[in-house]
Write a sequence for this structure.
């Protein structure tokens, strides 16, 4: 919708009422003394609103998670004791569908101890579970799978063209060459003295850095061990 600012003010006001207003509220530009007076007036004589009328019944969702976390420990203990002594009697469960047996879940299988898995595997190896005999609903076609042959796809069903056999690659010809006399290898060239001195200095710096890092690691490990001992001592001391 386009607005024409040359129209009458009444028509312009009617059209702009449906447009969203992204301007900040007027309370932001209100002076401080006006805000103070408005707060004092609301405190002294608040606006009387009509009583609240609920059009729907609230749903009981039980105790919220935040309230459950803030509950003291003794209330939780007494609540658990009350549930054990006199549990709440609930109506019988009515199943609208029949559950399907999916066997043991993967999480339950992973939570078992290794000894139970070992005993189960040993029992399966000694006395395996007997399965019902397999019942074939139809016999295999002998024309597709003969008794002493392997099932392979037909050439016509894989490639729609004639068979093309590529020629073999030519074999390289080897010519007898006279054996060369074994020459004495020349000694490797030695690096200059400047490079040797630089490598020596670098090796010395690396050894110093490794020694300092080991010292820092020992210091931090000692501090961590002292903190653990202090925490354990404080716990047993308070007990």
């Amino acid at each position: 919708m386009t607005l024409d600012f040359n129209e009458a003010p009444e028509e312009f006001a009617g059209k702009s009422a449906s447009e969203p207003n992204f301007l900040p509220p007027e309370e932001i530009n209100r002076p401080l003394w006006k805000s103070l007076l408005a707060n004092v007036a609301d405190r002294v004589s608040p606006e009387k609103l009509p009583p609240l009328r609920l059009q729907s019944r609230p749903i009981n969702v039980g105790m919220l998670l935040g309230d459950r976390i803030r509950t003291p420990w003794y209330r939780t203990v007494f609540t658990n004791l009350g549930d054990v002594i006199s549990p709440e009697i609930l109506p019988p469960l009515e199943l609208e569908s029949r559950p399907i047996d999916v066997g043991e879940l993967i999480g339950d299988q992973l939570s078992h101890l290794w000894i139970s898995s070992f005993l189960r595997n040993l029992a399966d190896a000694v006395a395996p579970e007997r399965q019902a005999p397999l019942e074939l609903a139809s016999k295999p076609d002998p024309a597709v799978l003969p008794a002493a042959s392997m099932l392979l796809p037909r050439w016509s069903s894989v490639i729609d063209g004639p068979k093309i056999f590529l020629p073999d690659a030519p074999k390289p010809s080897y010519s007898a060459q006279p054996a060369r006399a074994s020459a004495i290898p020349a000694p490797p060239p030695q690096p200059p003295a400047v490079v040797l001195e630089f490598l020596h200095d670098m090796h010395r710096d690396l050894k110093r850095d490794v020694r300092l890092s080991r010292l820092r690691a020992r210091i931090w490990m000692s501090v961590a061990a002292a903190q653990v001992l202090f925490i354990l001592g404080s716990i047993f001391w308070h007990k």
